[in-house]
């Protein structure tokens, strides 16, 4: 388990699967606890997949519903894309 990814301090693992790992993390910029989903490392040959993922994430950021976790941020730390949820 990493200590931190980008500006998120990893607090505890929450789960893992085929699309990456999810951690309970602390946003050190804003001081809030979040769910941090870290996706598998993206290789140069997967750039189209990353572009699709980012476009889908941007659409997800526009949704607001009590049964859907709000997506706060998307980013990349080294070659590992991540998504930050409430």
Describe the 3D structure.
- The protein starts with a strand and ends with a strand.
- It is globular.
- The mean pLDDT is 87.
- Strand 2 and strand 3 form a beta hairpin.
- Strands 1-2-3-4-6-5 form a 6-stranded antiparallel β-sheet, with helices on one face.
- The protein is of the alpha+beta class.
Please give the share of residues in helix: 10-25%
- Helix count, DSSP H or I runs of 4 or more residues: 1
Structural class: alpha+beta
Q: How would a crystallographer describe the biggest sheet?
A: 6 strands, antiparallel
Taking pLDDT < 50 over at least 5 consecutive residues as the criterion, the unreliable ranges are: none
Topology, please?
Elements: E1 4-5, E2 8-17, E3 20-27, E4 32-38, H1 47-60, E5 71-77, E6 80-85
Antiparallel strand pairs: 1-2, 2-3, 3-4, 4-6, 5-6
What attributes does this structure have?
single chain, about 90 residues, about 15% helix, about 45% strand, globular
What would you say about this model in short?
The protein is of the alpha+beta class and 86 residues long.
